[in-house]
Every structure is written in structure tokens, then in C-alpha cells.
Design brief:
Blueprint lengths: L2 H12 L11 H8 L3 H15 L4 E11 L28 H14 L3 E6 L9 H13 L3 E5 L7 H7 L4 E3 L6 H7 L5 H13 L3 E3 L2 E3 L5 H12 L7 E6 L16 H14 L4 E4 L8 H9 L4 E3 L12 H11 L2 E2 L1
Parallel strand pairs: 1-2, 1-9, 1-10, 2-3, 3-4, 4-5, 6-7, 7-8, 8-9
Bound molecules: S-adenosylmethionine, 6-(5-methyl-2-OXO-imidazolidin-4-yl)-hexanoic acid and iron/sulfur cluster.
The site of iron/sulfur cluster (SF4) has 9 residues, from loops.
């Protein structure tokens, strides 16, 4: 497919879905990855500028509300109880602790507050406490997001009733590679949760991780899967693997920054109306590398000095970068 044809596929995609047929096949996404870099970034900028203020960056702050001791074996994760990562575990925080962190995030300028729990999924007894946190954070005037793992029938509806805006649940990689990274739950489990979340009327945040030893075709496969969700996620986090000593992926080769930027650009072009988030791994990137990701169409990021169990650039550093680039936060 030539550039014009690829862009016209992007434009078709931008219209409200008329059928549930896949709109992006893996080959077409691969063709985007294989464009000359400047051509790819040009298409990404065109897609961004059609739907967004290109200099506005959505900012979400993260808090781990329950840390470590997780039953699952996700090969990238510091929080699995199967790996010796030296992580200090923490039971579910109180609403007061969460509220204090949310207030601080709001003061720094975050627009959304995302609460993450190291669960395979929440137990029925856990949900009332999380619902209380959601109500309290929303009352501050922040958008709310939680990431709690696999949801059982009815749980997404309960979270919606509490006023939750977004549910984060990443597909993480292509279906063909998922089994190399996680064996304790399946890709289909994750798709089922995303369907439950959508049916409950919540907004979807779903993306993935690159740099886990996957191929370019796998990266294209992840993007195609996300773009073909009907409708696509409102928010698409693209994480660069943060290697955690003690996990199976501790020694993965870092991904080349241009390949990372290509993944962001492919997400931008195939999901033109979604916020594409430059997510984990920013601390390992220079200012210029981050700027490249914004040029590739990222218009969202994690803001605040920590992610879940690892660190993120300090707020003053991010504010300086925004000043240098003429970006403003929302
Ligand atoms: N337990 C829930 C789940 O797995 O859905 C929610 C928390 S989990 C830590 C949320 C997401 O963080 C994962 O799906 C993965 O995409 C991302 N993540 C976890 N560890 C990471 C790492 N070391 N580097 C990059 N991203 C990571
Ligand atoms: C997402 O895609 N990335 C965030 C959030 N959603 C929950 C988590 C990143 C975690 C990075 C490793 C850590 O801090 O444990
Ligand atoms: Fe548990 Fe989530 Fe980490 Fe997997 S990614 S081990 S489910 S906390």
C-alpha cells in the first residue's frame, strides 16, 4: 500500500464503526512500520493534527494501591510472587492514603489519577474499598482510572456505579507472543475483560509493552488488535519495558528508540482519535528521545515521580521539557 492508501485507511478508521470486521490487518500495520521514518512521522502528525491540539499532552498520575505478592507470572513484572525481585509488598491502602496521593497529583497538574493493584483480578470483598477510593478521587475533580486485572461478570458495572471513568487492561503484545510472556492467564481472558469493561459503559485504556524480545510483526500484531477493538480504546499506553532484576525479562535487549517511536506512530495512525500514551520507560530516555515520541504522535504521559513500583522522571524535569518543546499539560 502506498502512503496515500495508508492514510485513507486511517481516515476510514476515524469514522464511527459501521461493522465489527477487522479494519487493520497485520500486513497493513507492518507496512506502516516499514515506511521511511520521516514519511511515517508525517502521517502520524497528520493524524494527530486532524483530531487534537498537537501541543496538548494529557497527564495521568499513578499509584500502586496494592503492591506485590501477585499470583500471576507475567515475565516483565516486579510484582509476581514467583520472582525474587526484592520488592516490598503492601496490602491495600486506605482511602485516606489514596486521597492524599491524589490531592498531591492534582496540585502538580495531573488530569487523571490511575490506581493499580497487583491482583489477578479483584475478589468480591475487595471491590467496596476500591469503589470508595474511586468516589473520593472523583470528588476532587480528577478523572479516575483503575487497573485491577481480570474482572468477573458484574464487577465492571459496580465500578461504573462508583463513578469510574477508565479501566486500564493492557493486551501487552500480539496474541502469538503472549504465551511466551505469561502462562497463568490467556489473551482471551484479557479480551473478555475488555469486553466486560466496554459493555459496562466505561472508557477503555489498553496498550502494551515493547522491548520484551518480540518481533516487529508482533508489535504490528499488538497495534492491529488494539485498533480493531470496536470501538478502539480511548487511551493507548505504549510502555517501554523497564527491566526488573529477578524477572525472566531482566536481560532483554533494549529496543531501538526509532523502533519504539515507530510503534507510537503506528498506534497514532491506526487509532487517530485515541490518546496515545508515552508510558513506562521514560526515565531511561533522553529529552530528545521523548521529543521524538511526541513527534511520532504521543499526546499523553505518566506524570509524577513514580510509576507503580519503579520511578518516573521528576515533575520539575518534565515541566522543563514541556517549556522547551512548547507543550502544555491537560
Ligand atoms: N495486575 C493488573 C494487570 O496485570 O492488568 C494491573 C497492574 S499491571 C502492573 C499493569 C500493566 O503495567 C501491565 O499490563 C504492563 O503493561 C505494565 N507493566 C508492568 N510491569 C512493567 C514493566 N516492567 N515495564 C513496562 N511495563 C510494565
Ligand atoms: C500502563 O500501561 N503502564 C502503567 C499503568 N498502565 C498501570 C504501569 C507501568 C508499570 C511499570 C513498572 C512498575 O513501575 O512496576
Ligand atoms: Fe500481577 Fe498484573 Fe504484575 Fe501480571 S502484570 S504479575 S497480573 S501485577
Amino acid at each position: 500500500m502506498n502512503d496515500t492508501a495508508l492514510l485513507s485507511q486511517a481516515e476510514t478508521h476515524a469514522r464511527p464503526p459501521v461493522s465489527s470486521a477487522p479494519r487493520w490487518d497485520v500486513e497493513s500495520v507492518l507496512a506502516l512500520f516499514e515506511l521511511p521514518f520521516a514519511d511515517l512521522l508525517f502521517l502520524a502528525q497528520e493524524a494527530l493534527r486532524k483530531h487534537f491540539d498537537p501541543n496538548a499532552v494529557q497527564r495521568s498520575s499513578l499509584l500502586s494501591i496494592k503492591t506485590g505478592n501477585c499470583s500471576e507470572d507475567c515475565g516483565y513484572c516486579s510484582q509476581s510472587k514467583r520472582y525474587q525481585t526484592g520488592l516490598e509488598t503492601q496490602r491495600l491502602l486506605s482511602t485516606e492514603e489514596v486521597l492524599a496521593a491524589a490531592k498531591a497529583a492534582k496540585e502538580q497538574g495531573a488530569g487523571r489519577f490511575c490506581m493499580g493493584a497487583a491482583w489477578r483480578g479483584p475478589k468480591e470483598k475487595d471491590l467496596p474499598a476500591v469503589m470508595e477510593m474511586v468516589r473520593a478521587v472523583k470528588a476532587l475533580g480528577l478523572e479516575t482510572c483503575v487497573t485491577l486485572g481480570i474482572l468477573k461478570d458484574g464487577q465492571a458495572e459496580q465500578l461504573k456505579e462508583a463513578g469510574l471513568d477508565y479501566y486500564n487492561h493492557n493486551l501487552d503484545t500480539a496474541p502469538e507472543f503472549y504465551g511466551d510472556v505469561v502462562t497463568t492467564h490467556t489473551y482471551q481472558d484479557r479480551l473478555d475483560t475488555l469486553r466486560n469493561v466496554r459493555e459496562a459503559g466505561l472508557k477503555v485504556c489498553s496498550g502494551g509493552i515493547v522491548g520484551m524480545g518480540e518481533s516487529r510483526r508482533h508489535r504490528a500484531g499488538l497495534i492491529a488488535k488494539l485498533a480493531n477493538l470496536d470501538p478502539p480504546p480511548e487511551s493507548v499506553p505504549i510502555n517501554n519495558l523497564v527491566p526488573i532484576p529477578g524477572t525472566p525479562l531482566a536481560n532483554s535487549d533494549p529496543i531501538d528508540i526509532f523502533e519504539f517511536a515507530r510503534t507510537i506512530a503506528a498506534a497514532r495512525i491506526t487509532m487517530p482519535r485515541s490518546y496515545v500514551r508515552l508510558s513506562a520507560g521514560r526515565e531511561q530516555m533522553s529529552e530528545s528521545e521523548q521529543a521524538l515520541c511526541f513527534l511520532a504522535g504521543a499526546n499523553s504521559m505518566f506524570y509524577g515521580d513514580h510509576l507503580l513500583t519503579t520511578s518516573n522522571p521528576q515533575t520539575p524535569l518534565d515541566n522543563t521539557l514541556f517549556d522547551k518543546l512548547g507543550l502544555h499539560g491537560i
